[in-house]
Structure formats: C-alpha cells, structure tokens
Design goal:
174 residues; alpha/beta; Rossmann fold; two-stranded antiparallel sheet; 5 helices; 9 strands
C-alpha cells in the first residue's frame, strides 16, 4: 500500500534553485491519493473538538469541505480580498515580497465557536497566523489546524503558539 507522501510529486529547483516544490496536484489527480489524504486528515483530527471547519482558497476548500461533510459541520470560506459578496472582515499579512489580504464574511463565525482550520500546507505560517487572527477577531476559538503537508524547516508551527497543528506529511526541509 502506498503512503501519502508517495503521491506527492517533488520538483527540484522550483520556483528557484535550491527549493524542492511539493506538488499536491499529483495527489488530487489520483483517486487513491485523494482518498488517502482526506482519510488521513480525518483520522488526525477525530478527537479535536470543533463546531465549524474553515478553509482558505483554494486548496483549503478542497480538503476542508470533505472533512466538514464527513463530520456534519458547516464549512466557512476564507478568500482573497474582494471575492465575497456580503459584509466582510479582513486581515492584511506579510508575504515574502509584499502583502496580501484575506477576508471572510462577518457573520460566518459566531462568538465562542470552536474552529478547525484545514489547508494543504503550512510553510512559514504567515497565512495560517492571519487566518487565526481573522477568526479570533470574530470571537471564534481555533482548536486545531490540519494540513496535508508541513515544511518543518520553515518553522510555521511556531506562528501558532499553543494551537495544535496536525500534519499528514512532515518534510524536514524547506
């Protein structure tokens, strides 16, 4: 039986020399790989107490929606600025070269709701930290973050302080 990491395609020197890009499209394009990814993330979070699943576009949608469905929980979108039609709250955060802004509907998280964040990857943790701050600004409590891959060498886990991080695959490097 193949392991989840066997489905991930590693591309050397992309986007620049010295970087190994971990491509998840090869997981998504294989029915067994996709099934294993969702099942693994479900197993990792089976004991996490949460009321709602939140995922960022676009890969958080891919992995978060099935987990919400399996557990009969609502799914909340986090999107890039200007993509949501109702009143939003936003968070600007730093990127390697510049900044980005994410948003969610102002009424999507109720005060005191426990939230599970689902995404494909945590690297430096900047996007994940911004998501946590956005959820907390609405009164939500993040009880866990689950990702398919963690690039441990970039230390994104440190951005989460005491929030548990569950990763299906951990790569030691960058």
């Amino acid at each position: 039986m193949k392991k989840l990491e066997d489905y991930v395609r590693s591309i050397p020197d992309f986007p620049e020399k010295g970087i190994i890009f971990r491509d998840i499209t090869s997981v998504l394009q294989d029915a067994d790989g996709l099934h294993l990814a969702i099942d693994t993330m479900q197993e990792l979070t089976k004991d996490v107490d949460y009321d709602v699943v939140v995922g960022p576009e676009s890969r958080g949608f891919i992995f978060g929606t099935p987990l919400a469905y399996i557990n009969h929980k609502p799914f909340v979108l986090i999107r890039k600025k200007g993509k949501l039609p109702c009143e939003t709250v936003s968070k600007e955060y730093a990127l390697e070269y510049g900044t980005a802004v994410i948003e969610m509907h102002k009424d999507s998280i109720k005060p005191g709701q426990k939230v599970l964040i689902v995404d494909d990857l945590i690297a430096t943790g900047g996007t994940t930290k911004a998501m946590v701050e956005l959820i907390e600004s609405l009164g939500g409590v993040v009880t866990g973050v689950v990702v398919m891959m963690e690039l441990a060498g970039l230390e994104g886990r440190k951005q989460l302080k005491d929030i548990p991080l569950y990763s299906a695959i951990t790569y030691p490097g960058k």
